[in-house]
UniProtKB/TrEMBL annotation:
PANTHER family assigned to the protein according to its UniProt record, in alphabetical order: SOLUTE CARRIER FAMILY 12 MEMBER 7, SOLUTE CARRIER FAMILY 12, CATION COTRANSPORTERS
A single GO cellular-component term on record: synapse
SLC12A transporter C-terminal domain: residues covered: 651-769, 774-908, 940-1058
Transmembrane annotation, as ranges: 71-93, 105-128, 149-170, 203-222, 229-252, 368-388, 408-434, 454-472, 564-591
Protein name, entry field: Solute carrier family 12 member 7b
UniProt keyword annotation of Mitochondrion present: no
Comp. bias (Basic and acidic residues): 884-901
InterPro entries assigned to the protein according to its UniProt record, in alphabetical order: AA-permease/SLC12A_dom (IPR004841), KCL_cotranspt (IPR000076), SLC12_C (IPR018491), SLC12A_fam (IPR004842)
Pfam families assigned: AA_permease, SLC12
Amino acid sequence: PFINNTDDKGNSYDGTNMALFEEEMDSNPMVSSFLSKLANYTNLSQGAQEHEEADDDEGPKKKAVKSPQMGTFMGVYLPCLQNILGVILFLRLTWIVGTAGILESLAIVGLCCSCTMLTAISMSAIATNGVVPAGGSYYMISRSLGPEFGGAVGLCFYLGTTFAGSMYILGTIEILLTYMVPKAAIFVADKKEDELDALLNNMRVYGTCCLAIMSVVVFVGVKYVNKLALVFLACVILSILAIYAGVIKTIFDPPYFPVCMLGNRTLKNHQFDKCNKIEVIDNITVTTQLWNLFCDGSQLNATCNEYFVNNNVTELQGIPGLISGVISENMWSTYGPLGMLVEKSNLPSVEGGDPTQDIYMPYVVNDITTFFTLLVGIYFPSVTGIMAGSNRSGDLRDAQKSIPIGTILAITTTSIIYITSVVLFGACIEGVLLRDKFGDSVKGNLVIGTLSWPSPWVIVIGSFFSCCGAGLQSLTGAPRLLQAIARDGIVPFLQVFGHGKANGEPTWALLLTAGICEIVAQQIKFFLMCYLFVNLACAVQTLLRTPNWRPRFKYYHWALSFLGMSLCLAIMFISSWYYAIVAMVIAGCIYKYIEYRGAEKEWGDGIRGLSLNAARYALNRLEDAPPHTKNWRPQLLVLLNVDSDQAVKHPRLVSFTTQLKAGKGLTIVGNVLQGTYLTKESESKKAEQNIKAAMSAERTKGFCHVVVSSNLRDGVSHLIQSAGLGGMKHNTVLMAWPGAWKQSNDPQSWRNFIETIRETTAAHQALLVAKNVDSFPTNQDRLGEGTIDVWWVVHDGGLLMLLPFLLRQHKVWRKCKMRIFTVAQMDDNSIQMKKDLQMFLYHLRLDAEVEVVEMHDNDISAFTYEKTLVMEQRSQMLKQMHLSRTEREREIQSITDESRSSIRRKNQGPAENASLSRQSSTTEDAQLIHDRNTASHATINDKVDAEPEQVHMTWTKDKLLTERNRNRECNANVAVRDLFNMKPNQTNVRRMHTAVKLNEVVVNKSQGAHLVLLNMPGPPRNRGGDENYMEFLEVLLEGLNRVLLVRGGGREVITIYS
């Protein structure tokens, strides 16, 4: 009948095997349907939708996502190869080898390649730890280290890629104007010293034009860039093959590229063809073009430069060949300052002439000051580009397999190319030609082009297209990276760059990138920072051993990641320490901005795991021993009330918490809702949200804890006992004074308040009670000149002295002065007390005014006596009223359960008659009221019900009514007679006297104070006097505006020792 039941018209499931789980099918799908959804998952394509969280409002409709088909070779290996090999190899590597020497050049290449290889290993581990949607390095860092690090490093990587685009564009222009069409230069220098300015102006004009053309190509569509990429890559590979072919050719047939030397100095041969001073034509000695460059005329008797006269002109073979032995000369470095002449040390030279005139002569000179760390910075961009494969993760057939293999193979290949190039350049090319950065000594040919076969033009054209391709790749990749960051929503002001064309092309991001490309800066620091954080991400995940860290790539270790991270940091500071600091400051600013203003994201990142581990370690350490007095600070549990709509009743209590804590130490804001958790779950969540909103508005850093309990008393007790964790537990309870306790019909509100005082005392916790809390200042207020008055009546740990000091750290109370009042009795020496107190405060390093107030033993006034009598009469009346209400409840119960009610009714009579005796009735009544709200009342009922089991009486309705009226009349008469005849208790009279006299003194001295701190007297041990205790406190605080009652936790919290 159960299985074939046809009454259920709800969801029908195939088969009946899983009927037990059918109610949960909506939230917990069957494994079969879950697996089918997982199998249909595809990465988002690179062009259309860049990110896994992309919104649907970009285009009218999502395009159908094609299944990615790219393998390791096409998808990862070739893009990485193209990005790594580039402008530095063709334009600067020969100069680096000539300047640093083969050994130091190998060190530079080894250092940079080791850095990228270690980063690639870390990246492979991250990339194979789950599906990596398009987003590349930014995605990996942000999901491993959190949105703050991800956003900061992602934006730095974006800037690095953009600046790299600028570098590639400038490289393109340099090749165009220096080696391809020098006559196309718009700005031509008339003087030699103006050549650099002219070159920069040409680069600005042509660079802007080239950038505009490239931006248009990228804007039209990424598919054209991808088509051109293969052409450009083919050019690069052909150029490298041409270099190797040229090296092999030098063994048996070195190319003829003579370098003209004057003495040991290298000459630029742009303006002369023959490397001679004079030549004989038809038996007539004539001067050459070279003579005219150093002399003031073409005659043989013209005045010439002294160095030109003293030294001979010789011709060196620029490329002596692989087996010439030139490798031994190029083994060591030749660093020098700006303007240093490029010289060959083993050639004869006779010094002479004015060195200041050398800059006007056609010598090859250093255009910058050279040193090892500079060359590291110049070379490093040639090994960047290792992220090209991971950036295309959305287009790969199997990203987890392709990214590690393709990236590491590409780095290995390029490292071999760079290392062999360093050795072969040093072994084949003359040292002075290597140090000739622009090839001025070989008619302005590209130095590496002189080595290549079959023609230097192969290298020139190859390097030109290489720079174009790398520039286009940067302009394609950088906007997509910015778009991915913008779509994540972690940097609010970048939201506009998340939008693009209908097909997802990042139009706005491209415009920004093109704009930034106009400003060139040191981009390698940003790449290094990105690589540093990739290594950090892998190391953190490995050391944390998070359950989700299960990469398929197994050849990683946290030590390798730390080594890679150290190398990145070292290279950053080696190459340029001030740019490294600038890059770090930029990243730090972005980090703090995202932390302060960014959207909160939970990506299960490693930094959160690191925080949890650090917190666990710190909590374990805290558990060892309680804090020393010097480290003691109030760790607050704030008992906050909410109204029926779960809105916070006293937000100023939260403000006061902030002012007292200033963000230091522990703050737990607790609240208790009455009911059961199953019925009050939504109210509990709402109350928690509202409290967190109030904490956020008041900038209170802490935790919120909402408890649902069957009654408020137990809930508060649970909070006091269990809030916090381990050593991070509260030691102080802050609560508001129950202002309406007199008007409340339910005495339970002030009874709960008194029980809270008792429990904090039992738990050895301090207690702060704020009276008139709604008049306390907000965090925006600035209190002017005024005082915080401390009334130190009894010493209970020194908390009274510590609180004003903590409050004055906050800007609200900063201008307030501290005054300490203490009370002297008749037997005390008030002058000596004042001196002692001043000395005590001096040792405590506290600035405060001291005043000793004398209280004489006056006779108890009639006013005090009468006030005590009224208090006790009111208390007795409240008891009588409460008892009658209790009887009514019991009568209702007796009608529904006659036999049980009769027994209870019979037994209750003596207890009511005994109320004539004030002490016994008070104790019993207080216990009765308290027990109604705890589980223990069941045992008392059992005891009450246990005795008269033998009594059997039959009650009719008439008998019940008669008995009820008779008892009520009797009780009313007794109560009225008792009220008029009672005399006040002498103990209460004395306590009321203290409250009245102390109140007079405090009001007299401190009525104008901004805040009054006062010792809180403890509640009576006998619960019968609880109502009177509330009256005493009310009298004590009468006429004061802002009062903080303070009760110590039973330990010293302030010390005179250092």
